Write the structure tokens for this entry.
Amino acid sequence: MILSYMTSASFNQNPSKARQAANENPLVITDHGKPTHVLVSYEEFEANWKKPKSLAEALYDPNGSDQDFDPPRLSFENREIEF
């Protein structure tokens, strides 16, 4: 995802330019060089943040592989128990 950046001073001086930039990509608004807010179009907001997701949708990684997760089994043999 490509992000655009704008200082808070520029945002305050020209909010229409900020809205135009947010229609293209999410716009990060910075204050003294630190990101403080993100402006996105309402369409993008609805697509990515408004709808509740199921657990499967939230965990789905479109760039991930379809390999099954098979962790190695742990062995607790030869371990002393301390109380």
